[in-house]
C-alpha cells in the first residue's frame, strides 16, 4: 500500500508538485483537478480494472521488460521533439495539453518515454502510465487516462537472418512460429516504407507487429468469440508505415491503438542505427470499458467500495452496476465575444470550478444575433456524485461559482 495523495500548491507565481517547483509563464495551465490525481496511479492499484488489464498485457508479452513508474512530468523535448513532432504541430497547443511551463508538461502519451525505454538497452519493452489531455467531459472522455506502449527492435540484417530472429522471438504463439503463415500485412505506397529501409525487412517487422498485437487482443477477448478486429492506415510523425487498430463492439468500430514501424532517425538518436523496430500505443480505459462492461470512464476513479471491491487481480469480469445517485441539471447561457471559442477550455474551466461532480457538459443551443453578430451559447451541465446524493442548494452554490469563473475567464456576457 502507498499514499495516493498528491502534494501540490498552485499560486499566481508558481506551481509546486511532488517536490518540484515551476515558475509560472505564459504556458502554465495545469489545474488543481489534474494535479490532485497525479498520485492515484490507477494502473498500479491491483484491483482497478486499468491495472488488471495492464497486468494481463504484461503477462501476455512475458519476454518484454515492463516499465510503469516513469514520472508523468516530462519535457516538451520528450513529449514532442524526440518523436519528430514538428514545432508547429497542433498537438503541442495549450488547449490540448497541461503545461507547467513552456518546457514542461504532463505527458500526453506514453510515447514520451520511447527514448528512455531504448536507453535501458532492452530490445523489447512495455511502458504504462497515466496520460493527460485537455478534452471534453462525458462518459468516455476524462482528462486523465492510461496508455500502454509496446516497443520491439531487431538487427536490421539480411532478410533470412531477420526472419530467423523474428520467429525465434514469437514465443507467445501456440501455432507454428512461422511468420509467413501469419502474415497478411499489405503495405501500400500511400502509407510508405521509409526510404532507408528495405521493403522485405519492413514486411517482416510489420508482420511481427501485426501478429503481436492481434494475438494480444485475441487473448484479452478470449471469451468473446465474435470479436472483429481491423487494421486501417494511419499517420504518426514517429512511425511509417503506421496503422490504427479498431475492434467491433456493440455495433460500432472502436479505435484502441496506434502503431507502426519506428522512424529510423528516432532509433539513430539512441545509437541504434543498425536496428529496425516497431511501436504501439494503446488506451487502457477503452479496453477496460469494453472488457468489464463499465459504462462510464469516471467509475475507474471511484473510491466507492461498491466499485473498488468488485474486481480481482488477473481476472476479467463484468461490472455489476449499482444504483446511481440522481443528477442535478443546470444550464448556463452567455454571449461570446467575436472570434474563436475553445470548447475544451470551457469544459476545463467548468471542471476546475466544480470538480468531478460534473458528469457532462453539452452545448444545447447556439445562435448568432442577426444585428449585433454576437454569438449566444447555452451549455447544459449535468451534476452527479458517484458516491452520494447532492442537494439542490449545494449545486446552486457550485453553479454560481461556475458562472463567476466563466465570466472572468472568457469575458462573456452571462444571460
Ligand atoms: C498516440 O497517443 C500515439 N502515441 C500512439 C502510438 C504509439 C502510435 C506508438 C505509433 C507508435 P492516439 O492519440 O491516437 O495516439 O492515442 C492512442 C490510443 O489512446 C487511442 O487509440 C485510444 O485507445 C487512446 N485514447 C486517445 N485519446 C483518448 C481519450 N481521450 N480517452 C480515452 N482513450 C484515448
Ligand atoms: Mg488516434
Fold topology:
Layout: E1 8-10, E2 14-17, E3 20-23, H1 32-35, H2 49-60, E4 65-67, E5 73-75, H3 76-79, E6 99-101, E7 104-106, H4 114-119, E8 124-132, E9 144-155, H5 159-168, H6 179-182, H7 199-220, E10 228-236, E11 239-249, E12 252-262, H8 264-269, E13 275-283, H9 284-292, H10 305-308, E14 328-336, H11 343-354, E15 358-368, E16 375-383, H12 392-410, E17 413-414
Parallel strand pairs: 4-8
Antiparallel strand pairs: 1-2, 2-3, 5-7, 6-7, 8-9, 9-13, 10-11, 11-12, 12-13, 14-16, 14-17, 15-16
The structure holds adenosine-5'-[phenylalaninyl-phosphate] (FA5) and magnesium ion.
Radius of gyration: 23 Å
Strand content: 25-35%
SSE ordering:
EEEHHEEHEEHEEHHHEEEHEHHEHEEHE
Mean pLDDT: 92
CATH topology of the largest domain: BirA Bifunctional Protein, domain 2
Q: Output the structural class.
A: alpha+beta
- Measured between the Cα atoms of the first and last residue, the distance is 49 Å
Helix content: 25-40%
Organism: Phycomyces blakesleeanus (strain ATCC 8743b / DSM 1359 / FGSC 10004 / NBRC 33097 / NRRL 1555)
Pfam families: FDX-ACB, tRNA-synt_2d
GO molecular function, one term: tRNA binding
Keywords: Aminoacyl-tRNA synthetase, ATP-binding, Ligase, Mitochondrion, Nucleotide-binding, Protein biosynthesis, Transit peptide
Amino acid at each position: 500500500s502507498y499514499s495516493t495523495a498528491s502534494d501540490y500548491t498552485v499560486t499566481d507565481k508558481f506551481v509546486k508538485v511532488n517536490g518540484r517547483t515551476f515558475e509560472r509563464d505564459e504556458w502554465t495551465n495545469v489545474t488543481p483537478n489534474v494535479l490532485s490525481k497525479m498520485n492515484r496511479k490507477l494502473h498500479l492499484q491491483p484491483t482497478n480494472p486499468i491495472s488488471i488489464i495492464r497486468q494481463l498485457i504484461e503477462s501476455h508479452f512475458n519476454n518484454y521488460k515492463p516499465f510503469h513508474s516513469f514520472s508523468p512530468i516530462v519535457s516538451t523535448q520528450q513529449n514532442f521533439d524526440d518523436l519528430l513532432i514538428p514545432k508547429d504541430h497542433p498537438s503541442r497547443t495549450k488547449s490540448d495539453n497541461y503545461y507547467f511551463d513552456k518546457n514542461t508538461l504532463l505527458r500526453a502519451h506514453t510515447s514520451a518515454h520511447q527514448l528512455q525505454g531504448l536507453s535501458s538497452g532492452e530490445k523489447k519493452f512495455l511502458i504504462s502510465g497515466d496520460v493527460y489531455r485537455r478534452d471534453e467531459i462525458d462518459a468516455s472522455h476524462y482528462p486523465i487516462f492510461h496508455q500502454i506502449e509496446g516497443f520491439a527492435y531487431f538487427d536490421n540484417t539480411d532478410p533470412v537472418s531477420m526472419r530467423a530472429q523474428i520467429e525465434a522471438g514469437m514465443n507467445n504463439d501456440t501455432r507454428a512460429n512461422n511468420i509467413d503463415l501469419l502474415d497478411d500485412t499489405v503495405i501500400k505506397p500511400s502509407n510508405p516504407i521509409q526510404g532507408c529501409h528495405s521493403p522485405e525487412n519492413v514486411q517482416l517487422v510489420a508482420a511481427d507487429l501485426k501478429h503481436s498485437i492481434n494475438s494480444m487482443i485475441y487473448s484479452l477477448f478470449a471469451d468473446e468469440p465474435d470479436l472483429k478486429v481491423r487494421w486501417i492506415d494511419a499517420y504518426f510523425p514517429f512511425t511509417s508505415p503506421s496503422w490504427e487498430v479498431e475492434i467491433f463492439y456493440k455495433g460500432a468500430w472502436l479505435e484502441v491503438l496506434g502503431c507502426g514501424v519506428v522512424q529510423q532517425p528516432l532509433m539513430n538518436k539512441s545509437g541504434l542505427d543498425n536496428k529496425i523496430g516497431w511501436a504501439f500505443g494503446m488506451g487502457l480505459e477503452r479496453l477496460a470499458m469494453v472488457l468489464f462492461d463499465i459504462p462510464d470512464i469516471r467509475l475507474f476513479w471511484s473510491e466507492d467500495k461498491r466499485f473498488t471491491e468488485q474486481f480481482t487481480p488477473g481476472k476479467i469480469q463484468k461490472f455489476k452496476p449499482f444504483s446511481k445517485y440522481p443528477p442535478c441539471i443546470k444550464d448556463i447561457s452567455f454571449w461570446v465575444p467575436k472570434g474563436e471559442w475553445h470548447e475544451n477550455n470551457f469544459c476545463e474551466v467548468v471542471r476546475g470550478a466544480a470538480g468531478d461532480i460534473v458528469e457532462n457538459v453539452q452545448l444545447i443551443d447556439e445562435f448568432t444575433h442577426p444585428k449585433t453578430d454576437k454569438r449566444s451559447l447555452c451549455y447544459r451541465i449535468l451534476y452527479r456524485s458517484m458516491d452520494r446524493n447532492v442537494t439542490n442548494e449545494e449545486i446552486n452554490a457550485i453553479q454560481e461559482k461556475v458562472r463567476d469563473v466563466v465570466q472572468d475567464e472568457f469575458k462573456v456576457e452571462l444571460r
